Amino acid sequence: MTTITNSHFSTLFLLFAQYGGKAIIPIEDVCRDYFNHLTPEKFLRKVGTGEIVIPVIRAETSQKCQKGVYLQDLADYLDRRRDAALKEFRQLHR
């Protein structure tokens, strides 16, 4: 049996497959898949206050246009969260 590790598949590659090759993921989808405890409004509020450090993109300058997260930025955010979790895990299990 082969074990799949992060060295075999990057987070970016896995997200690319998950979202069907989209470059920008709508906020609603990001919340549904990774922040399901937050509404899109609460997610955007936390991004605005810096509690969640991930850039949000607007398709145009209009305040009403759909907002999303660039695929690479989501991958980077998830990788940073994983790195933090691994660091904490290693400190607890030395």
Describe the overall structure.
This protein is mainly alpha-helical. The protein contains 4 helices and 3 strands. It has a 3-stranded antiparallel beta sheet with strand order 1-3-2. A hairpin with an 8-residue loop joins β2 and β3. The longest helix is centred in the C-terminal third of the chain and has 22 residues. The relative contact order is 0.16. The model has no long low-confidence stretch (mean pLDDT 91).
Number of discrete helical segments: 4
Mean pLDDT: 91
**How many strands, which pairing sense, and closed or not: the largest β-sheet?**
3 strands, antiparallel
Give the spatial strand order of the biggest sheet: 1-3-2
Range of strand content? 5-15%
Percent range for helical residues? 40-55%
**Cα distance, first to last residue?**
28 Å
**Low-confidence blocks of residues:** none
* Rg estimate, integer Å: 15 Å
Layout of helices and strands:
Blueprint: H1 11-18, E1 24-26, H2 27-34, H3 40-49, E2 57-58, E3 67-70, H4 71-92
Antiparallel strand pairs: 1-3, 2-3
Helix pairs in contact: 1-4
Keywords for this structure?
94 residues; mainly alpha; 51% helix; globular
What can be said about this structure in brief?
The chain is mainly α. It has helices at 11-18, 27-34, 40-49, 71-92, and strands spanning 24-26, 57-58, 67-70. The chain contains four helices and three strands; from the N terminus they run αβααββα.
